[in-house]
Amino acid sequence: MCGIVGYVGNKSAQPILMHSLKRLEYRGYDSCGIALAGSDLEVYKDVGRIDALATKLNSNGCSIGIGHTRWATHGKPSRINAHPHTDCSGQFAVVHNGVISNYLELQTQLILEGHHFSSETDSEVLAHLIEKYYTGDLVSAVKTALTYIKGSYAIIVLGKDTPYIVTARYENPVIIGVGYHENIVASDVPAVLDYTNKVIILKDGDIATVSRESVKVCNNGREQTRNCNVISWDINEAEKGGYEHFMLKEIHEQPKAIAETLRGCLSKVEPQVNPGIKIPDNIEDVLLLGCGSSYHATMIGKYVLELIVGIPTRVELASEFNHANPVLRKTWTIGVTQSGETADTLMALKKARQLGSHTLAITNVVGSSVTRLVDQCFYTRSGPEISVAATKTFITQLMAFYLLALSWPGVDYKYKYGLIQDLGRLSSKVQRLLNHQAEIAKQGANLARFENALYVGRGINYPVALEGALKLKEISYIHAEGYAAGELKHGPFALLTPQTPVIAIAGLDSTREMFLANIREIKARESPLLAIADERDTEIDKYVDCVIRVPSTEPLLSPVINSVALQLLAYFAAEARGCPIDLPRNLAKSVTVP
Ligand code: F6R
Question: Is 337 near ligand 1, meaning CB less than 6 Å away?
């Protein structure tokens, strides 16, 4: 996720671009840049945040320009990889938010034709394609260039001698703030609210020509009418996209995060999976390391790898591994850390390397410390996560494990075919669950009355119970523990009273009969029982007091859907208790001390 802006009007563009970019920093902030069209195209960019770049600029009076704040996906955060990107002749500058999945193919062809590339980004191909197809009309060059692009994009293009900017979108947002003798293009409303509250929202496939006095939108070669909406929110509301908290916003971004992480990795026809990771030769087992939610993701990863690949896999808390005396022989070590900065995970990976292990990091942050420490990286593409509680980064870590397992050489065709189809449908299933969050909100408000709760699951849904309990305790301060359902009778049964609700994550897999037996035992102790269950599961109603039904999926993928339901449950419990959801007490987003 990145932020893009463009200005054309009667004022100096540079301060307006910088101010608008600042409003979009929640979308990414590892590097930034602007391009201004005067007698030449002037480009200023750097690593770091908007304020730092702003101190290096003087307003030069140009009244047309574009800008970008980056969350790296292709190539580390660096000045060269920062946007805007330009073509060889320096006539055009482009800012892009999205992922171009066929950029390597396009780049190879353009290099053969004599284009010189400076950056490691996927976005730079856009500038070169526009240069290639430019014959005097920037709009038609952009239109032709986009016909070659596979993937998602929101772009703004600036030409050296063109009194307008061109913007286009496909699966990434673009809005146009309509002002008096000025127009501002941006990824999101907050970027324009200080200048205008009138906004046009582009649709997929739209290409708009934006000049000082007019906005012309075309789609499929035809001119379109797009209404101007009047925005009534204040700036704080707008930065959260209308959500009360970043956590809820990030929960709702999960369909997109899933789709972005899978993008370009699945081929349903063959069927084939290619996450761009080379499985090391001759490995005999796998070691998974992580902390907190990332550790729970590794526990699910173990089930996935052992079931699909059949390779022995163990999981270790990174903080404990650092004090252990592990034996690693032909072991592939995979460290999972969304921030890429967790000190315990970094130390554990260092130790695994010293013991001769090949290492892979699964992380959400390109250029983070972990990326410099390991042999290979898999990047989840969740975009920045602001709320302290991990939500979308946890879900995309699970995606990483499914992709990795399915790309393993020799994996049975029966898994490949069915699971690839089901993975492709996950994003829309999560969306369906989110569309019905009102029922979960009621259950969350009910849960808020209690001071203790237990979460139980079996098999692949046992780590889901741990994750559900972690979410609840960290944001609502309700004491919650996750257990393997079969373990309750070995001690925790003593806690069961009508004041201790139990949240049961009901799988439809081989654990089913045993799980129902465990649920009956809990019911006999009079604890209120709430089940999270597949929508096909009508039998569960006989055993529990309430059910949250979730979209049906292949049991191996059910941790994704169930975890999203549990995130919402925790969120609404915390909301009912009036907790500071995005910044829970005593916690930090990046834990950089061991
Ligand atoms: C829980 C949470 C933490 C992190 C843990 C590891 O919601 O966010 O438990 O999962 O601190 O962080 P990363 O993944 O950055 O290593």
Answer: yes
